[in-house]
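From the pipeline queue, job 12 of 40. The input is one protein chain; the requested action is below.

Action: predict structure.
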Amino acid sequence: MAYENEMRLIGNLGANPEEVVLSSGQAAKIVLYVTKKWRNRQTGEPVQKTNKFYINVYGQPAEFVLNHCKVGMLVEVKAALETRSYDDNGISRYVMDIVVNDWSHRVQILSDPAQKRSSDQPAPQQYREAPQQYQEASQQPAPRQYQEASQQPAPRQYQEAPQQPAPRQYQEASQQPATSQYAKPPKNERWNTDRPFGQ
């Protein structure tokens, strides 16, 4: 039959880890606040209770805790319970410690409130307004100079050219009557009726 000595706690660090230097190596002390919530069966009101745990961390887990864990972080601790005794004025007293001493135990970070606050911050104002500037540029009407040029009528000189009358000199010449030189001889001349035709 296998025996196990293991406990699991999830809570928030109440302070930054405290480094402890031992002859056997590096160690750290952490304070963990674990809150339990439930509802009163009689009144239906929510109730909560917070317990405070002191945890001793040794070896490589202690190095991880000192380098990465900060106050306020939500962490999961897998540890073991160990008892020790000491003499208090001739009276033996026993203390139970929560110990993390190898990689079968661990301290794992579940969330960091500091990182969450930084990720919730809005993007810089300059970045947010850049797409709006592009949108306004795309909605601007075409340049007025181009529109007015396309709406101008054709040059007046080209439209009126086909409607101009023909030159007056040409019209008057075409309206003159035919020459009457063969109609009758000049008044100052007379026909010679005594002269034979062809002589």
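Job complete. Residues 123-138, 146-150, 169-174, 178-183 have pLDDT under 50 and may be disordered.
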